[in-house]
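Q: How would the structure tokens look for this protein?
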Amino acid sequence: MEKVSAKIKPAISPMPLAVVSCCNKEGKNNALVVGYCCNCSYDPPMVMIGIVPSRYSYPMIKETGEFVINLPGKNQKDAYNYLGSHSGRNEDKLEKLGLKVKKGMKVNAPILMDFPINIECKVVGSITTGSHEMFAGKIEHINVDADFLNDKGEIDYSKILNM
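A: Here is the predicted structure in token form.
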């Protein structure tokens, strides 16, 4: 089979569907959809998210060093789409959608209670990779709706939203 050249662009697909929630030092909450989200260490467990510095949430994470990755279930498709297409600069997106929020168990960032999986993280470092700053976050706590666990107590990823 012959190989041909492809257009150069981010080439790993599909990307996970993830909503990152955060707050500033004054307690104002926000959430945004991120295209770059992945595991980056298993010991200690860490994840990495990429955020463009012009995004409204970027200075919130920079100043507090905390965030929550919220994985949507199949019932959160509309909320996911809205959070990814509107800016918190212009409105309180969480209030507009009527999403329930609660402070994290281990971080001072909001958990989106309507989303079935919430991964609380503290920033341990970052690197600017061009268009994005990649924040490495140590996982401090994972909140999961019980029906998203399998019989071994592990997350059943077949129940999360995939588009």
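Residues 58-64 form the longest helix (7 residues).

Residues 18-34+55-124+142-159 form a domain with the Pnp Oxidase; Chain A fold (CATH 2.30.110.10).

Upvote if useful.
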